[in-house]
Amino acid sequence: MNDSAKKLGVKIHGAYSCPTEHTFYFVLESDDFKSITELFSGIMLTNNNGRISPVNPIKVSAEILIK
Questions:
Q1: In the chain, what are the domain boundaries?
Q2: Per-residue model confidence (pLDDT) at position 49
Q3: pLDDT at position 23, please?
Q4: pLDDT tens track for 35-48
Q5: Sequence-distant (≥ 6) Cβ neighbours of residue 28 within 8 angstroms
Q6: CA 16 to CA 28: how far, in whole Å?
Q7: 36 touches 30 (CB < 8 A)
C-alpha cells in the first residue's frame, strides 16, 4: 500500500483497524481527491464498503466561511 500511495502522491499519516467491528481507518493527505479514490480502488473495495470524508483544518474551514 505504501508503494501505491507514494506513486499517487498520497501521504499516509496513519492506518488503524478496529477488529471487533471489521473496520479500517486511514489518515491520508493528498492534493486531490482522485488520488485517494485510486488508492482504494480495486481489491480494497471489491468486497467491502468504504467512505471517504475529506476534511480541512478548522482554521481553513473558518477562513472559507468568513469570506
A1: 2-66
A2: 76
A3: 86
A4: 998 998 877 777 77
A5: 5, 10, 11, 12, 13, 36, 39
A6: 12
A7: yes
